[in-house]
Design brief:
The protein is built from eight helices and eleven strands. Helix 2 runs parallel beside helix 3 and helix 6 packs across helix 7. The chain folds into two domains: 119 residues, Rossmann fold; 89 residues, Winged helix-like DNA-binding domain superfamily/Winged helix DNA-binding domain (Arc Repressor Mutant, subunit A, Orthogonal Bundle). By secondary structure, the protein is α/β, with parallel strands linked by helices. A five-stranded parallel β-sheet has the order 2-1-3-4-5, sandwiched between helices. It is 41% helix and 21% strand. Bound molecules: calcium ion.
Length: 220
């Protein structure tokens, strides 16, 4: 999953960035509204935006309004100060999907992220199940025939991207974008290596290779 973090407070930004990376999200961090706007216009690959409202150069609400007016439906989680009720209301009315209060409760932030990502994938139920395989994105527990399977962080990231859009084919490039943020270097056959690893652990049925196009998991 690839996230855009928009936060001008360096201390908060660093804490959240560390947290999200420890959870194996690929995260790009921008510190003002103009840069957020540019990043969002240049890349369609973000799964979610964490948006501060009080930002230099361009207000968070403006960034959000611009997204929605160009039909960018990427989920937006507003992060705002506890006393900024009116801003939050304006944000939700401008097309935000949810909000968290600063200072963050980090576990709540992660839970809200998961809920939004699940809803964006058209799922309400927290566990993804396909035949004998069960996948819990909150705990990252994967079971095959009831037995736990351990995945590497990158394997998990590939699997998470695929189960976020069951029935949709993701190209290698699209999967790479979910795996890597700006700071990372991409090795050329990495996605194939992770898919190979996943197939060995989960069997060959869940992740299907659509020849010449990419990979998909079927709808459960
Ligand atoms: Ca701010």
């Amino acid at each position: 999953m690839r996230l855009l973090l928009v936060e001008d407070d360096t201390m908060i930004g660093e804490v959240v960035l560390d947290l999200l990376r420890a959870e194996h999200y690929a995260v790009d961090w921008v510190k003002d509204g103009e840069m957020a706007d540019t990043a969002l216009r240049q890349s369609q690959s973000y799964d979610l935006v964490i948006l501060d409202l009080g930002l230099p150069r361009k207000d968070g609400i403006e960034v959000l309004r611009a997204m929605r007016s160009r039909k960018d439906r990427t989920p937006v989680l507003i992060a705002s100060a506890r006393d900024a009720v009116e801003q939050r209301i304006a944000g939700l009315d401008a097309g935000a999907d949810d909000y968290v209060l600063k200072p963050y409760d980090l576990d709540e932030l992660l839970a809200r992220l998961r809920a939004l990502l699940r809803r964006a994938a058209g799922r309400a139920e927290p566990i993804f199940e396909y035949k004998n395989i069960s996948i819990n994105p909150a705990t990252r527990e994967v079971q095959v025939d009831g037995a736990a399977v351990t995945l590497s962080a990158r394997e998990w990231a590939v699997l998470e991207a695929l189960i976020a859009r069951p029935g949709a084919v993701l190209s290698r490039t699209q999967l790479e974008e979910k795996l890597y943020s700006w700071r990372d270097e991409v090795s050329s056959n990495a996605v194939e290596v992770y898919i190979h690893g996943l197939r060995k652990k989960l069997g060959s049925e869940l992740i299907q290779n659509v020849r010449g196009v990419g990979y998909m998991v079927p709808k459960p």
